[in-house]
Design a protein that fits this description.
Layout lengths: L2 E14 L2 E14 L3 E5 L6 H8 L8 E3 L4 E4 L2 E2 L5 H11 E4 L3 H4 L6 H12 L2 E4 L2 E4 L2 H14 L5 H4 L9 H13 L5 E5 L7 H18 L2 E6 L2 H4 L5 E6 L2 E7 H6 L4 H8 L40 H5 L4 E3 L5 E3 L22
Parallel strand pairs: 3-11, 3-12, 7-10, 10-11
Antiparallel strand pairs: 1-2, 1-4, 1-5, 5-6, 8-9, 12-13, 13-15, 14-15
């Protein structure tokens, strides 16, 4: 498969009254065509800022994408796009689903009209009975109803005439997905799409995104703090902490062979069905570092129970374990102690 998106050395800062907050600090990853990947980490680790950067939604000021950063879509750096190119890219080629659908949807417009607006802006023609015809508002409304049916909203004709506040939380998220997929984007970013939804609705939303992704061959970047949500969706997982990528690999390696203490801690914090009665849930002690003054060493060092002196002094390089699995941790250095660590430290090549 060819690479649809390549993010290279992305660095994003926000200039505040207190100083420069370095939200994203040298993030590099790629997404292949038709592939689903997940970016996971705690709140404040830089996931959403990375997503907004890919969508061209960093407001300047106070935000700033630093020189040397590259976001390549089909080989072209979107950071060099003019207003017309960006308008086509954002909506026509890529789309985003935000975590708070009620805030993202326009409360003064019916859901159907919001889908129509997106269609009229980014699509000039539409297929009708096997023929390509010019898109009109009437045909766009028919397509909007079709999209609402596709995402599982009952009585789509009547629902298209209703406003967002008349929808339940799960239905609003489905409406957001309908708007996002209306123009058949090649890249979809889902930023915490299941936040504030109950467990059964979460599963339905994730299944819907997975089905549409396969049906339309759309590349998906799933942003979440919940590893349990991504298990059946993402082919590869990128673990972020304090604006950096600390581990990356395919889903099986991340879940069954994690190589970074932070990834291990995230997995331990996922509630399990085999917990004993009144057994305490695992938590990650401490707080993330202040990105006004990022640490010079490993960003997880202050919370890591395996921290060594060098961890506080120098950032570790990524160790390659084969098959695209990498982790940045000093425990994998040949001179590091091998006892009492949460993973096997030998380099594994496949």
């Amino acid at each position: 498969m060819s690479k649809l998106l390549e993010v290279k050395n992305l660095r994003v800062s926000y200039h505040t009254y207190a100083g420069e907050v370095q939200s994203v600090r040298g993030v590099t990853f790629d997404v292949e065509e038709g592939e689903a990947i997940a970016i996971v980490g705690e709140s404040g680790c830089g996931k959403s800022v990375t997503a907004k950067s890919i969508m061209g939604l960093i407001k300047t000021p106070p935000g700033e994408i630093k020189a040397g950063s590259e976001i390549l879509y089909r080989g072209e750096n979107i950071l060099n796009y003019d207003k017309k190119q960006m308008s086509h890219y954002r909506g026509g080629e890529s789309a985003i689903i935000f975590q708070d659908a009620l805030a993202a949807l326009n409360p003064t417009m019916t859901v159907g009209k919001q889908i129509v607006e997106n269609l009229m802006m980014h699509r000039k023609t539409i297929m009708v009975d096997g023929k390509e015809v010019k898109l009109t508002k009437r045909l766009a409304m028919q397509e909007a109803v079709k999209m609402l049916k596709m995402v599982g909203i009952p009585n789509a004709e009547q629902r298209a005439k209703q406003y967002p506040h008349e929808y339940s939380g799960g239905m609003r998220q489905r409406a957001m997905i309908a708007i996002a997929f209306a123009c058949q984007p090649k890249l979809l970013i889902a930023d915490e799409p299941t936040t504030a939804l109950d467990v059964t609705i979460q599963a339905q939303i994730m299944d819907l995104i997975k089905d549409l992704q396969k049906q339309l061959n759309t590349s998906v970047i799933l942003i979440t703090h919940d590893l349990g949500v991504v298990a059946n969706v993402a082919k590869r997982i990128v673990v972020m902490y304090s604006g950096n990528i600390v581990e990356r690999g395919n889903a099986r390696d991340i879940f069954y062979h994690p190589k970074h203490p932070y990834t291990c801690a995230l997995l331990e914090a996922v509630p399990r069905l085999d917990l004993k009665n009144k057994q305490e849930l695992a938590s990650i002690e401490g707080t993330p570092p202040d990105l006004l003054a990022p640490p010079k060493g490993c960003p997880f060092s202050t919370r890591c129970k395996y921290c060594m002196e060098i961890c506080c002094e120098q950032a570790p390089a990524a160790t390659d374990f084969g098959d695209g699995h990498e982790a940045a941790c000093w425990l994998h250095h040949p001179l590091a102690p091998k006892d009492d660590v949460p993973f096997k430290t030998e380099v594994r090549h496949e």
